[in-house]
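Why do we care about 3D structure at all? Because function follows from shape, and shape follows, mostly, from sequence. That is the central idea of this module. The next example makes it concrete: a single protein chain, its amino acid sequence, and then its structure expressed as tokens.
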Amino acid sequence: MMKNNKFIIRDTIIILIAIFMSFNIKAQGKLFPNKLEKWSIGAGVGAAEFYGDLVSDKLSPGFTLQLNTVVDSYHSLQAEFVMGRLTGNRLFNSNQIAGEMFDAEFMELDFNFLINISSLFDKELNFDNNRLTKKYQDRSINFMAKFGFGLNMFRTKRNELNGEQFINSYGYEWQWENNFKHAGTKHVPWNKNIVEKTLVLGFVTNYKISQKVAINFSATSRIGGNDKWDAMINQKDDMFMFYSLGTTYKITD
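And the structure:
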């Protein structure tokens, strides 16, 4: 969990600095104009890296869908759907036989606020807003800070590493017969799974191929308001990093 805390502290400090600088910009115009502009849709593939009581030994696959809208030259809003898997293990000794592991699948809906860090450091920041807007539109690469909140729906099970003896689960029927032989094999419907709040902190790099199409790479931490993703309760919140590569298409100008 030490690495977990380092990620949280690092991301939080950098995001707060970016927010502070963003809200102290002396440019013309309102932060939230009456009309939102430049709607775009996006999709990408990614991989999750888990940090909790059990820790990832490999990346787990996932994908993401987004709906974005630009507020002004510095800020944009995003609704994001993420779906994927989380895995991790803990060894009891060095022979890599005795230990425990977990396997989880999740769906998450996030609402995010993005700050264009690149525009904050433009030399023309304090000049005419029309020049700044044009500079923003012409720039090929943009770096953005990202923060938001989400709802994460998941199911997970934890087994012994050797022999996969059932230990604990959430979102699966507890079949206790025959010493839990079939426990963790039959999941409950998605609408009966646990839903937890998450805090989203991260960064996005955006490269424009054209005025309509861009490629995005993001590295985002999702900090859970629970200690259940790895089906092991230890009074500490779990988190995972989600790395994604995708594309966005601007549907309005």
